[in-house]
Every structure is written in C-alpha cells, then in structure tokens.
Hints:
heterodimer; A: alpha+beta; 4-stranded antiparallel β-sheet; about 35% strand; elongated; B: mainly alpha; Ammonium transporter fold; 3-stranded mixed β-sheet; 17 helices; 3 strands; about 65% helix; globular
Amino acid sequence: MKLVMAIVKPFKLEAVREALTELGIQGLTVTEVKGYGRQKGHTEIYRGAEYAVSFLPKVKIEVAVASELAEKAVDAIARAAKTGQIGDGKIFVYSIENAVRIRTGETDADAL
Amino acid sequence: MRFPRTTIARLAPGAAALALGTLAALPALAQEESAEAAAEVAAVMDKGDVAWMMTASLLVLFMTLPGLALFYGGLVRAKNALSVLMQCTMIAAVVMVIWVLWGYSFAFGGGTGPFWGGFGKVFLSGVTADSMASTFTEGVVIPEYVFICFQMTFAVITPALIVGAFAERIKFSAVILFTILWVTFVYFPIAHMVWDSSGFLYNLGALDFAGGTVVHINAGIAALVGCIMVGKRTGYGKEILAPHSMTLTMVGASILWIGWFGFNAGSNLEATGGAALAMINTFTATAGAIIAWSVIEALHRGKASMLGAASGIIAGLVAITPACGTVGPVGAIVLGAISSAVCYFFVAVVKNKFGYDDTLDVFGIHGIGGIVGALGTGIFTAPWLGGTGGDDFSIASQLWIQIVAVVVTILWCGILSAILYKIVDAVFGLRPSPEDETQGLDLTSHGEAAYHYS
C-alpha cells in the first residue's frame, strides 16, 4: 500500500479529484496548507504598509492506494494539476505499514 | 468679512439650540432672549422637520454602530477584531450616559462663555417634551429632545474614531477612562466653541457646517497624540500586520457613507433645500474622492485596491463635512478629490517617513481630511466656484478665519489630549502586557474569539 501525498494549487483541486475518481479511487483527504518553494511569496500593500507574504495557500491531497495503483495515481495527479507555471506543487509517495477501516475492522488492502 | 446674518446662522448647526426657542419658559436661562423672542411670531414646529431629524439622528448612530465598528474591525488582525467592536459599542453607551448627565450642558447648556456651556442643563434639567430648540429659520423649531439626540450621536462617534489610532495594543479600561475625560475636556468645549452662538470660533465666523473641526480634526489630532504616546504595535515593521477582512471594511465604509447623510444633511436641522444641498454634496464629494484615490493608487502602485477605494470614501466624506452646506456639487467633487490626494500622501508617504503607528490612519484621513475640508470650505464657498457665499465673499479673509479655527482646535485638542493620556497611563496604564498583545486583545481583554472554524 502507498500513500500518495500531493501539494497542488488550490484551483486545481477539482481537476485532481476527477482524475483520481476515473482511476476508481474512492476517497481522499484534503487539507488547506501554506508554504513556499521556488515560487516564493508575493507582496500585499495596505495603504502605505507593504507586507511580503512568504507563504502561499496550497492544498494538500492525501490518498491511500494499493501499491500497483500508486504510479497511475501519481501520473493522474501530475497531469491534472499541471499548469506549466512555477508553483504547480509536488507529489510524494510513502509506504503504508498498516490500514484499518474503523467501521468494519477490515485491515490493509481491504480497508482502502 | 462677514456673512449676512442669515447665512451665518445656516452655517452653524447647534448654535440654533442656544438661540433658545423654549416654549415652556425656562426661568433665568431664557430671559435674555425672551425680550427678542416676544417680538417674534409664534414658533412653529413642522412635523416633516421633526421626522427628518429623528431619522438623521438614527443615521448618525448607524455610522458608529455598526458602520465604524465594522470598518475598523475588518482593518485589524482577526485576534483583535472583537476588541475594536467592543470599544466602539462601549464608547457609544458611555458617551450617551455622559451626554445626558453633563455633556449636553457643557456644550449647549445656555451659558454664554466662549469656551463652554455651563451647568445650566446638567441632568437635562428643565428640558421637557415641550421644550423646543430653534433651527436656522426664524420661528421654526424642533423638539429639544430631538436636538439633544442628534447632537448626542455626534458626541458618540468622535471618541470612537480615535480608537483606530491605537487599535490592537490598548487596555480596554484605558479606552473607557480616556473617553470619559476626553469628551468632557476636549469635545464638549470645542462643540460649544464652534456651534454655540456664544462660542469663540462661531463668533469668529468660522464655517463648519456639520463638524469638520469638532469631529474630524478633533479626533484626528487626539489620534496622532495617542498613537505616539501609546507607542507602536509589537512587531511593527517586522511582522505582517495586514487587515483580516477587507469585506467587513468595505461593508463598514459603505454604512458610514449612508449614515453620513444624516450627519451632513441632518446638520441643516430642517428638511429643506439646504439639507438637499448637503445631501447632493455628500454624494458628489465622495464619488470624486473614491475616483481620485483609486487613480492615484493605480498610478503610484500599479493597482487600485478595495482598501484604497474605502479610504477614498472616508477622505471625501470627511472633507465635505464642514463644506456641505455652502459649496456647490461640482466644487464638492474637486474638494473630495483634493482630500484623497492629500490623505493618500499622508498615509502612504508621511506616516512611513516619521514612523508613527497610526494603525487605522485616523490622523492621516480624519485629521488631514478634516483640515483639507476646513480650508477648502473657505475656498469653495466662493460664489464664482459654485458656493453659496454672498457677493462680498472674500476667499482670503475666510481662509484666514478657517486657519485660525483649525489652529485653535489643534492646540486645544493636542495639549489637553496629551495630558489626559498621561492621567490614564498613571491610573490604569495604557498598554496591555506584550504577551497579551501577542495573544490578541479578543481573548485577553474580552475572553472570546471573533471566529471559530467548526
């Protein structure tokens, strides 16, 4: 089992969700996060006061999949979230040791 | 240079109250005037005027609650939003009580001194539902209770304006004590000086239709002194101190604009053409100021911002306040635009250069816009600029009187405010601890949070 974690631009969230649904993936977790990479931040001006906003809003998507599906999921996310502009985000893949579905007590692949 | 007597009267709201149209004879107080009054025709109360003035009073209250409170609330960080709303709410309540106990008397109590109104009407003694206050038309009166309510709402908003200067770093107890002292020693005397027929600036011939000196210059100067004496916010110049909700700020600024029609057109005290002139000027000056601020910002910074447009709304309204009864609608557009340009320069350049933390630009917009308005009134009242001044109107001499009025207000307010901040500092202290300030005043002063995300 793999956990695919992607950080993408907020307005790409819906496209990523659709792409993952097409693969038959049922369910994912989304968190609103802030951060910066090469895109750095931007400047906001309020009357005379200028503020450098270093951390930009992004969404973090986490989806647990069977190992054989991980590569397809990564491809789907990368295709859906790409704009070609700086700040498109990153994708990380982790190994999952155990998984449990709380309602039924099913474990591992059955729990996904 | 003087205006014809009738013109002078139109220019100074409040003065009217002291011309004493008291139907139920007030002993002693009314006596000096009574000989004159006896010769006049019987006073008439017009229900249309009364209805308009009751409405106008509510509009001015609407400026403070929720207008100013939301405007300020949006401009602070989320952790301090409630502290500003609470300060505005509490100031409104405290000043209403003081106004009835001694404020109205100190401003309009019938005393004929140049600097205050005396003790004649403390606890509103002698005022009944039959008491009448005169308007600017001879023989036309409104109930004195309506006049008291209308003027009360002005006394409420002025100290509420000041809190923007030291927002996010002031003790709640300090705000309340300062308000009590400040309205007593600064606001009521200046209201008397400008609006009462025995007042110092009134008799000088200063033009201030709706309170540019009394409300805006006064609040602006107290704000500047306050932000310097309280000191900068922790993290000023290092941390991001950006406004938390421009949406609330836009809503608040819009409510202020609507309420301002009560403030300006209501200052005419009658529902007549004079009120209509103040009304159209309150539209056009504000529109001119919004456009000017946005254009200047777009040229200077590359983008026109919502906060810029909201600032333009306030700059225009402040500038037209003293002028709305005597300038023309086109002159008002120019006056509003000039006010935006000067205020923009103060908030974007001067404030940074001197490094004072006037958090919500109370001095930069109300103080400076008020001064621009006071001086502009001396210019745009000229008949050849569309104003209502008589044929003998001289810009030079009127401008000189306006300058004197501004300087007197700045000195009186600046010196006394500094003393009052010192007193409050000695009694309660002005600032919360740095820990409390960092955690936010909502939790540390009021025990609640503006927003819960669940």
